[in-house]
Amino acid sequence: MQTRPIALLTDFGDLDAYVGAMKGVLLSLARHAPIVDITHQVPPGDIRRAALLLWQAAPYFPPGTVFLAVVDPGVGTPRRALAVEFNGFACVGPDNGLFTYLLATRSDWRAVALQAETLGLPEPSWTFHGRDVLAPAAARLAVGQTLASLGRPAGDLVRFPLPRCELESETTIVGEIIAGDAFGNAVTSVGILHREGEQLAFEPWLPGSVPARLALAGSQVIVGGLILDLVTTFGAVAPGESLAYIGSSGLLEIGVNQGRAVDQLDLAPGQAVRLSSARRTQR
Amino acid sequence: MQTRPIALLTDFGDLDAYVGAMKGVLLSLARHAPIVDITHQVPPGDIRRAALLLWQAAPYFPPGTVFLAVVDPGVGTPRRALAVEFNGFACVGPDNGLFTYLLATRSDWRAVALQAETLGLPEPSWTFHGRDVLAPAAARLAVGQTLASLGRPAGDLVRFPLPRCELESETTIVGEIIAGDAFGNAVTSVGILHREGEQLAFEPWLPGSVPARLALAGSQVIVGGLILDLVTTFGAVAPGESLAYIGSSGLLEIGVNQGRAVDQLDLAPGQAVRLSSARRTQR
Amino acid sequence: MQTRPIALLTDFGDLDAYVGAMKGVLLSLARHAPIVDITHQVPPGDIRRAALLLWQAAPYFPPGTVFLAVVDPGVGTPRRALAVEFNGFACVGPDNGLFTYLLATRSDWRAVALQAETLGLPEPSWTFHGRDVLAPAAARLAVGQTLASLGRPAGDLVRFPLPRCELESETTIVGEIIAGDAFGNAVTSVGILHREGEQLAFEPWLPGSVPARLALAGSQVIVGGLILDLVTTFGAVAPGESLAYIGSSGLLEIGVNQGRAVDQLDLAPGQAVRLSSARRTQR
């Protein structure tokens, strides 16, 4: 089997040698694995944002990729360390909710709980299991070792509550804000949208979310006390003006042209967002 | 043919999964291509700075390298997406001036306009053609697909006006400031300089720029109301003092030892810079 | 021989094309060398912090790795450029103290002084020997060229004074603060600690540092006027409270839960740190 690529997502930042040491471990155990950074700038301990980034990036990687995700505020506590094999890719990381969106949108997974002793590793440091436990496990998957060989089967993985995305009426979908991005845009749970001519096609992406087709013309987004037009590009509104648009992951987003929507519109995760169209189209 | 390396230059920053998703696409389509980051920290939408960085980095990469440059404020508008094959390397990016310096300093290029349909790609997102169109095109070049197979021939590429670099008198070269770097140094259009013993040799790098040889001794730079000595290292002046020196790309630069020249001397792109020597030397 | 991996440590930041150009050179001369970043965010010119990061990262890389370290405030002055071959890895960088910790903790090294002419390289730029001299030398080591072929033997490498780490009494080890990390934690010279059940085992890591075993229970750290409990995780103290713990490199560190110890406790390199235990345990 060809060596599997390894993609990294952490909150380590880039000021210290932490990412480097972890890559050294990967390189030591999986010399031919392509190693790719997703980001190391997850806000420290922000598990929900990391879970979203992981869900956003995963579809674009080649089959077999091993995602090594280390946002691990509970390191040193008895939280489990996991390896999860999906159909087509694998994840390694702490059991703290990091895989919530992937687990919610897939049913084809098996997980094991990792332990340094089981893996034949030396006693890990008190504070850096990313380097001492998780990276060795990811490297072993990358070189073809089986999931079962890495630990004991694990169920009941930690997940945070899923956001809602429901059809509220024939022409209104209600969801909520789930995260901000680096530019201050607010990402919502409303999606996956495809534009098909004059229609917006919604595909279910979370359990409970609904398929629907709304007319593009006259679609509006209501959030807080605001009513925003759904437009196709930031340039459709004047600088400083708010807009709603479909982000590159297929989720509805709220932005401000040349501004920071999260701050300027005072948006926060959990806040309700409604997308309304003048009419529902034929399915 | 060996897989061509791919070098990335974007304004995506490192906080989101955008660079990661783009690398996932590259890895999916060109598994064996070495992928190297130039930078992802171009100031958002700063095409002129991106064009300079691309021109600065390109000569140091191996023959065949594909440069994937995504500074794309016009994404979603009808701006063209390009692949440009030069003699020895290729570029992929939006048609917005990003390749101005490379096009100005080379005559050996051919370009095609990319389209998702022509490339057999699914309909791209509204906001992320770097991932959906440009990365797939770069990967196809990397694995040996021909330029002609990627789109229709394209001419009249967008370029911004070139800065001047002229011989104003026997002993004076006049140019202008073209960009600031991350340390607040101002890069000028005056170059390419080589030191040959006691002489400064200027080689033409832009159309209209001139070859010349000036004496190193007593060379001075005039910018704004300032007269600065041309020195070889920052350490040649006291902390806080201004200096002129030859940057690592062979262009004359203005700096402040342990300071930010752009801010402290109030320098801006377009501002005239004169390099004067006591005498012109023999050619 | 398999191509050796190359690991990079610089203070170039990520805003310019400097790292990219250096990687282009490496790729040109050592096409198959895996290239891994340790960090490019060393504070400009901070040789002591770079030396610590290099010492921290090196043990985690595969045998044979070439570390290319460019923190080079003296570029352009007559400071030497070095290649140093250790038993199991090599370093390339300026002779300014960057290798102090590695040299202090190993005796198995040989060094050569690099020169552009000797290496058959074109005249280097005035300001960027990382790209023009050091990267070519690192690439040559990576592809199997011998140390001796790169330059003339060099001794008396520049080193900064080592911090102390001494047994002050049967139950007290005295060391000093040697650096801050990116999170504002203070790293000390007291180490290497392993926890073995109820004991802390100290292994010598610097010349003059001592092996010892202290009881874990009741161990305290005295720094400035403060007395801190030695704990195993940040979560052991309330937010805003100070703590002492064993960092992931085995050195004693001082932190503030959800805060910046260096700033809040006014800690600085050179400041004495004492670790005291109620009793010494059997060796």
Coarse structural class of chain A? alpha+beta
Name the biggest interface. Answer: B-C, 32 and 28 residues
Q: How does the major sheet of chain A shape up?
A: 8 strands, antiparallel
What series of H and E elements makes up the topology of chain A? EHEHEEEHEHEEEEEEEEEEEHE
Radius of gyration of chain A: 21 Å
Distance between the termini of chain A: 44 Å
Shape of chain A: elongated
Please estimate the helix content of chain A: 10-25%
Q: Estimate the strand proportion of chain A.
A: 25-35%
Q: On the 0-100 scale, what is the average pLDDT of chain A?
A: 91
Q: Oligomeric form of this entry? A: homotrimer
**Number of beta strands of chain A:** 18
Low-confidence parts of chain A, pLDDT < 50 over ≥5 residues?
A: none
The tally of helices of chain A reads 5
Distinctive features:
homotrimer, alpha+beta, eight-stranded antiparallel beta sheet, 5 helices, elongated
Write the SSE topology.
Three copies of one chain form a homotrimer.
Chain A: E1 6-10, H1 18-29, E2 35-39, H2 47-57, E3 66-70, E4 81-85, E5 90-94, H3 100-105, E6 110-114, H4 129-142, E7 151-153, E8 165-169, E9 172-180, E10 186-191, E11 193-196, E12 199-202, E13 212-215, E14 220-223, E15 226-229, E16 242-246, E17 251-256, H5 261-264, E18 272-276
Parallel strand pairs in A: 1-2, 1-3, 3-5
Antiparallel strand pairs in A: 4-5, 4-6, 6-7, 8-9, 9-10, 9-18, 10-17, 11-12, 12-13, 14-15, 14-18, 16-17
